[in-house]
Amino acid sequence: MLKAIKSIYEFLRRLSGDDLYDIYLKNHKQCSKKHKLMSKQKFYQATLDKKWSGIKRCC
Amino acid sequence: MIKKYFKNIVWILVALLGALAFSTIALSRNESINAVWFITAAVCIFMIAYRFYASWIAAKVLVIDEHKKTPALRLRNDKDFIPTDKWIVFGHHFAAIAGPGPLVGPTLAAQFGYLPGMLWILIGAVLGGAVQDMTTLFFSMRRNGKSLGQMARDEIGVIGGTASLIGTFLIMVILIAVLGLVVVNAMKHSPWATSTVAATIPIAIFIGIYLRSIRAGRVLEASLIGFGLLLLAVFAGGLIDHSQTLRTYFDHDSLTLAWAIIFYGFAAAVLPVWLLLAPRDYLSTFVKLGTVIVLAIAIITLQPEIKMPALTQFTDGTGPIFGGSVFPFVFITIACGSISGFHSLIASGTTPKLLDNEKYIPMIGYGAMLLESFVAIMALIAATVLEPGIFFAINSPVGLVGSEAIDAIQKINAWGFKVTVEEMELLAKNMGETSLFARTGGAPSLAVGMANIFGKAFGTNLLAMWYHFAIMFEAIFILTTLDAGTRVGRFMLQDMIGNIYPKFGQTSWMPSIILSSAIVVSCWGYFLYIGVIDPNGGVNILWPLFGIANQMLAAIALSVGTGILIKSKKLKYAWVTGLPLIWLIIVTTTAAYQKIFSHDIRVGFLAAARDLTDKINTGLIEDSKISVTHQLIFNQKLDAFITLFLLIILWTVVIDMLRISFFKKN
User: Fold this and answer.
1) Is the whole-model pTM more than 0.80?
2) What is the mean pLDDT of residues B377-390?
C-alpha cells in the first residue's frame, strides 16, 4: 500500500515537474561536469524561460 | 490460443456495445435519452479506433520502427531533446492541447441539438483530429522535431511555410479576442464572478514568488496551496457579493471589463514568466485535470437525462447563438474536440523532442486527442442536460431577443422552448447571480450545467458555489491561453520584425518587448472591443472566424502529411490524411464563402455591413449610435477581408502541395 502511494506520489512529482531539479542534479553528476552547477532558483528560472519561449498552450 | 479468442470476444463486445450506444443516440427522436449513452458511445468508439485504426496507421501507413533512435536519444542535450517517460509526455502533451476550446465549441454548437455536435466530435476526432495529431508528430519526429512551419516550408515551399506562420498569428489574435469575450460575458455585472477571477491574479503572483524565492521549483506543494487559495477565493466572492459596499467595486459592464482584460493581457505579456504566466499555468492545469475527472465521475454516477432535442429547428441557420446552417457551421464551431489545426503546432516542435521510442506515437498523438474529444463530449453533456429554454435564454444575445426579460421569454417560447421569467429569476438566484439572460459566450451556460451536475451529485445547497467554481475553472485557463498566446504572438512579431531590424529580434530588449506586446494586444483588443459593443454578442462573428482559421491550419498540417505520403511513394495510403483534408477544404471553403457573401445579415459580413449602412441612410439608427455603427460596418468589412485572406491561403497551400507532390521532378 505504502509502496503504491509512494509510486503515485513519484509519478505526480514527475508529471508536475516537481522533481526536475533532482533529475538535473543526478544528470549533472553523471555527465555534464563541464557546466557549472546551477542553484535551485537559477535552474527554475532557466526551466521556465525554456518552457515559455514557444507555443506551449493550445486552444 | 484461448487468450486470443478471449481478446477477440472482448473487442467484439466493445464493438457491439459501441454500435448500440451510437445507434441509440442517432435514432432517438422526441424521447428522453440518458447521458450514459454518450459516454458509452464515446468510450467504445475511441477504444476501437485506438486499438485498430491508430495501430493500422502506425504499422502500415507510417511504418513506425521501434528500433529506430528518436531525436530525443540521438540529439539528447538536456535542453530541448530530453528522453522522457511516455506517461509524462502524454501528460504534457494533453495539458498543452486541451485548452478552453473543447468546452466552448460544443456548448455553442448545442443550438443545433445534441446530435450534430455529438456525431462530429466522435467521427471528426477518430478520422480527422487524432490522425492529424499523430501523423504530424510522426513526421516531425522523423525530421528531428521540426515545427509545422519548417516542415511546410521544406515539403511544400516558401508559400506553405509563410502561410502557416500567418495562419498561426491570425488564429492567436482571434482566439484570444473570443476567449476574452467569453470571460467578459461571464463576469459582466457579476461581482461574485469578477472578484473570484480577479483574485486568481494575486494568487498566481503569490505562487510565482513562492516557487521562485521561498521553495524554488516545488510545483506540487505550490499547486496544492494555490488550489486551496482558489477555493477560498470562490468562497470569499460569495461574501463580497452579499456585501452592499464591496460588491460595487466588482460590478462592471462589459466595456469596462474588456478594457481590464486588455490591460491585463499587456501586463501579462511584459511581466517575467515566473511571476504570472508560469504559476497560473500550474494552477490551471491542476484545476483543469481535477475538475474534468470529477465531472466525469459525477456524470457516470448521476446518469443525467439529456433535455435538448436531437435536432432543433436552428439547423436551418436561424440559430440565436450564431447564424448559419448546420452544414457547414457545426464543423467550424467545434474545432477543438474534433480537429484542431492548433494541435499540429504542439505535435511538431515540442513533443517529438521528448519521446524515446516511436512506438509511443499512437498513444501520444492519437490517444491524447481522443481524451480531448472526451472532454468535449462532457461539455456537450453539461450544456444539453439543461432545459433548452434555459439554455437559449442564457445564450441568446440582446440584439436578437431584446433586453427585457419578458421579451426574451416570449421570443424563446415562440421558438417552442418552455421557460418562464420566474424560472430564470430562481435559477439566477440559486446561482448567486442577478440575471442569467443574454450571458453569451458559452461559459455561463456550461457553468450552470456543471453546477447542476455537481449539485445533484454532491449537494444542491451549494449551487452558487459550484457555479462560481465552474466560472473560475473556465476563466483560469482562458486567461492562461490569453497570457501564453499574447507572449507567443509577441515572439512571432519580434522574430518577423527582427529580420528587418535585427535589434528588435532580441526577445529580452525592453523597447522591443513593450512595442511588440502593445501591437499584439491592440490586434486582439480591437476584436474584443468590437465583440463587446456588438449587440449581437460578438460570439456570432468571432467564433466562426476562429473556427475557419483553426480549420485552415489543420488543412495545412494535413496537406503537409498528404504531400509527404505521396512523395514517399505511399499514394495508396494518402487517403488517411487526404480524406479529412478534402472534408476540411469543403467545410472551410463553404463556411468562408457564406460568411463573406451570404445575403443573411446574421451570416454574411458584407450583407450585414450593407444592412447597417442602409439603416444609417434611412435614419433608423439613433444619432448617439451612429459612430458605433460605423465601427461595426468597418469591422464587418475587415472580417470579410480576413476570411477571404484565409481562404486564399488555404487554396494556395493545397494547390501548391498537389503541384509539388505530383508534378515536381526531384
Assistant:
1) yes
2) 94
Give the pLDDT mean for B128-145. 96
pLDDT value at position B459?
78
pLDDT at A34: 66
Write down the ipTM of this complex.
0.90
**pLDDT tier at B218, thresholds 50, 70, 90:** very high
Fold (CATH) for B2-189+252-662: Amino acid/polyamine transporter I (1.20.1740)
Confidence at B376, pLDDT banded by 50, 70, 90: very high
Q: Report whether B256 contacts A56 (CB < 8 A).
A: no
Write the DSSP assignment of B266-311 as a string of letters. HHHHHS-TTTTHHHHHHHHHHHHHHHHHHHHHHHHHH-PEE-S-SS
Question: Hey, are the CB atoms on B282 and A16 less than 8 Å from each other?
Answer: yes
Residues 321-380 of B with CB under 8 A from A: 335-336, 340, 342-343, 345-346, 349-350
Question: Which whole-number Å values give the CA distances from B295 to B18, B227, B288, B324, B537, in the listed order?
Answer: 22, 17, 10, 31, 29
Round to whole Å and give the CA distance between B77 and B70: 13
Q: Is the dihedral of CA B268, B185, B448, B197 positive or negative?
A: positive
| C-alpha–C-alpha distance, residues B658 and B663, integer Å | 8
Task: Report yes or no: B79 at the A interface, CB cutoff 8 Å.
Answer: yes
Domain boundaries along the sequence of chain A: 1-28
**What's A38's DSSP letter?**
P
Closest-CA residue to B392 (of B474, B336, B312): B312
φ, ψ at B519 (rounded to 5°):
-65, -45
Name the percent of chain B lying above pLDDT 90: 74
Which residues, 6 or more positions from B408, have their beta carbon under 8 angstroms from its beta carbon?
B393, B396, B401, B402, B437, B438
Residue type, B173: V
Residue of A nearest to B172 (CA): A59
Residue A32: predicted pLDDT: 58
Task: With a cut of 70, say whether residue B666 has pLDDT above it.
Answer: no
Reported as a single tens digit per residue, the pLDDT across B225-254 is 999 999 999 999 999 999 999 999 999 999
Burial B353-384 (b: 16+ CB within 10 A, else e): bbbbbbbbbbbbbbbbbbbbbbbbbbbbbbbb
- A17 to chain B, any CB pair closer than 8 A? The answer is yes
| Rounded CA separation B145/B475 (Å) | 32
**What per-residue confidence (pLDDT) applies to A33?**
61
The chain-wide mean pLDDT, for chain B, equals 92
Indicate the DSSP class of residue B391: H
Q: Which residues of B touch A27 (CB under 8 A)?
A: 78
| pLDDT averaged over every residue in chain A | 84
Residue with cell 509512494: A6
**B32: closest CA of chain A, how far (Å):** 33
- Beta carbons within 10 angstroms of residue B10's beta carbon: 11
Interface contact A1, partner B, CB < 8 A:
no
Q: What is d(CA B630, CA B608) in angstroms, rounded to the nearest whole number?
A: 12
